């Protein structure tokens, strides 16, 4: 069974729900009392997709401005980025544009980009339209997702999409930062967080771009 | 008020102007290799500056001599724009500049008027609850921008911050520095640290030296978050920068620190409490950490803490951790729930260790079933994965040796009550071992188990501490009898002891009890204090 090890960095302004999202996905829980992340937190998880196991190293970064200058330490050699904003706060969406510029400037290898609008449970206070966010995601060659960490909606798709993106990256000879190896153990015997869905299903789950746009993800940056 | 305001405006204008052409240094947040004046945290060496508040006050002063100088306005500009000065101010300005703490009647009248005036205008400062707070802490930039207020939103206190800035600038005009204003019942204390002004308005019985130490702690907390280098650079580039942008999320660290200052004796004593453990157990834990980390170069400190107490501390040879830095680390751990969720990789500046750069800390709790927090501090930003592996090894070894259980048992222990010591006259005491900067006290029993009781006890200890360490006349022994309790303080070369007795105790009984306490502490020394200073 083929195993891919990749690094995924979660970026975005403070209070948009980065940690809530990661903890919801990895810890399967939601806490109303999450304190701000200091520096960055590190998580790992595994996703099985068809006959490939993807090991994700997730760096959940702090959104506060004082950690901004530390960010390169966390996104260096990352294979995927989750760019998280709060759909009820327009400025958090604007901030994503700076993150994208910074990544484009500083990360040489191709990268899977996922734009994530969080807090859909507050949809009646929405300030960022789905169309605008989707259009922006297309422009940067990424995919757009909407999630609610509170109600556990859409988060699995985000990680699944990143994992699928990394599998495609691993087939790309340009990409040297992904670790790919054949694992000797039989597939599916160790802890699997995700039931292995068919590849096509994973892409369909994506509410935004078509598989064609998915291709562009891989070519970006 | 009318006298001070013109100064204020001029000062702000001149200070802003004078900083426009300063250099833009590149960003450098690399942890620098530690060097410089480190105070010692090993048993053989006394930690002088932590013991005597005045000493630490002076040492803090020495660290940032730029304070008043950088605030110095263009005096010529000021003189020509400010011709209507009237007499009260002249009197104030002519008073002796060398007195550390002075009461300027004219000035305090002015300030009270100002504050009264604000109270009418401001909704918040007019509120009874806000005004009745025993102690206020304010932080502002030298340009008068609010940074922090202990009670209430600083946005609603903007004019009050303006008054504080005006007072500081007014005295600063003469190249002098305002330290404190004393009125009946309320004192105003100022501490100027480069581009930052810290102020405390308090009605409590604390001394100027004690409050100064507290403000220095708050300042250290800010440096710990930003580094001195970054703090200085920001204000050099933009005098009127709103520091709250960079401190976002760090207010709770300051809140938490201030609560600790108000409720715990540790910071008053400048010492830490250790988790009581049999010395062989503690040594075994230490050895596990050392053996798992000794291949990792550039690891400066490994610190294991639990329940706000130190379990063990291992350091790189020739480097020491100052208790004040350890307090900042404990404060960070205690106020950050997020560390419990996952491994963290966190920049932290330890001001006494090196105020210019960050150390990188691998922070994690040992296990779901053992809530002790391990911090591995390094100067190398690329060391996360080696440290993460080392942590796994440490936990495995501790688990195999049943040491996690030992830690859990010690954490679950509620503490020794004073009744177990066989000294019925004593209600409570604090014993500080000077050489190791550690202290121990029994778990509070009636009448100190309530919040009010605990507060009164700490107040009594503060008074004792202040009198014993008064800069003008330090004492070795002090016996104070009042209605609620009799207090005894004793300072020797090796330890400090503060005891609360029942009010009717006789001197002979008190002395007998003190001797028993000291004998008991010595007998049980190994479990209560860390007496060795392990290195990697």
From TrEMBL, chain A:
Keywords associated with the record: Nucleotide-binding
Regions that span the bilayer: none
Superkingdom per UniProt: Eukaryota
Matches recorded under SMART domains: RAB (SM00175), RAN (SM00176), RAS (SM00173), RHO (SM00174)
UniProt cross-references to InterPro entries, sorted A to Z: P-loop_NTPase (IPR027417), Small_GTP-bd (IPR005225), Small_GTPase (IPR001806)
Pfam (any one): Ras
One of the record's GO molecular function terms: GTP binding
Gene3D superfamilies in the record: P-loop containing nucleotide triphosphate hydrolases
Family: Belongs to the small GTPase superfamily. Rab family.
Record's protein name: Uncharacterized protein
Organism name: Megalurothrips usitatus (bean blossom thrips)
From TrEMBL, chain B:
Alphabetized Pfam families for the sequence: Fuz_longin_1 (PF19036), Fuz_longin_2 (PF19037), Fuz_longin_3 (PF19038)
Record-annotated FUZ/MON1/HPS1 third Longin domain positions: 427-524
Residue intervals passing through the bilayer: none
Residue span(s) of domain FUZ/MON1/HPS1 second Longin: 297-396
Domain of life the protein comes from: Eukaryota
Biological-process GO terms, alphabetical: endosome to lysosome transport via multivesicular body sorting pathway; protein targeting to vacuole
GO cellular component labels: Mon1-Ccz1 complex
Sequence ranges assigned to domain FUZ/MON1/HPS1 first Longin in this UniProt record: 135-257
Function of the molecule: Plays an important role in membrane trafficking through the secretory apparatus.
Family: Belongs to the MON1/SAND family.
Protein name: Vacuolar fusion protein MON1 homolog
Organism: Megalurothrips usitatus (bean blossom thrips)
Phylogenetic lineage: Eukaryota, Metazoa, Ecdysozoa, Arthropoda, Hexapoda
